[in-house]
Write a structure and sequence with these properties.
With 224 residues, this protein is mainly beta. Helices cover 3% and strands 62% of the residues. It has 1 helix and 13 strands. Strands 1, 2, 3, 6, 7, 10, 11, 12 and 13 form a 9-stranded antiparallel beta sheet that branches. Strand 2 and strand 3 form a beta hairpin.
Length: 224
């Protein structure tokens, strides 16, 4: 038996994002993030023919982009030919994700066959804060100051959205496989396998039907 475990943390920060080119300082933002995961693997030699491998991972991901020091909440986005002003229409925003992953592989050798079966399951739960044009988005085709008596100085487009910026993003991933490495002769080996995958996110998030027929056969041979 062999048991291993690992913990990892990645703390990061990026400042001044979004500034440059036609984007003024008001478009700036800072992003902070923290990734953490714990991974444990357990390998067992059950006999001279059988081997079992189990891996478990629990991971956390936190990310948030704020506009502190660059713009204020409620400031609209303003697009002009000479520059882009105001707060970006999709800021501030953030996301937290929790993932539990279990991987199981079992191998067995019998005469000319090397069998292997396995599963890979991920349970993902995430919540996101993502405003979309919550504070308004003005587009102008001129740099002239606004004049109520001159229609050419009016915005050509104004977009504002009244939606809930909080979004739940659950997703479950299921993968299963079976394979056989069959040595027919010393110079001929057949690799035969079948895999099945299923993902539930499309149904849970946007109410789309699940795709339940993802069967993938895998034939192959090695000659030597």
């Amino acid at each position: 038996h062999s048991l291993t475990a690992r913990y990892r943390a990645d703390d990061r920060i990026a400042t001044g994002g979004g500034i440059g080119g036609l984007n003024t300082r008001e478009r700036g933002s800072n992003t902070t993030g923290l990734d953490q995961d714990v991974v444990s693997s357990f390998t067992s030699v059950l006999s001279n023919r059988a081997l079992n491998e189990v891996r478990v991972q629990y991971a956390l991901r936190e990310s948030f982009t704020n506009t502190d020091g660059y713009s204020v909440d409620g400031m609209p986005q303003i697009n002009r030919p000479s520059g882009n002003f105001g707060k970006a229409q999709n800021l501030p925003q953030g996301r937290n994700e929790n993932r539990l992953q279990i991987v199981e592989n079992f191998s067995y050798s019998l005469n000319a066959h090397n069998f292997k079966v396995g599963a890979d399951i991920s349970i993902i739960r995430a919540d996101s804060f993502f405003p979309r044009n919550r504070d308004g988005n003005f587009t102008f085709t001129t740099d002239l100051p606004f004049d109520p008596n001159n229609l050419a100085t009016y915005p050509t487009q104004y977009v504002v959205a009244n939606v809930d910026p909080t979004v739940d993003l659950p997703n479950d991933l299921f993968s299963f496989f079976v394979q056989d490495q069959w040595q027919l002769q010393t110079n001929l080996t057949l690799n035969l396998g079948l895999r099945y995958d299923r993902e539930t996110g499309f149904n849970k998030i946007i109410d789309e039907p699940e795709d339940n027929n993802n069967l993938e056969p895998r034939p192959g041979n090695v000659c030597g």
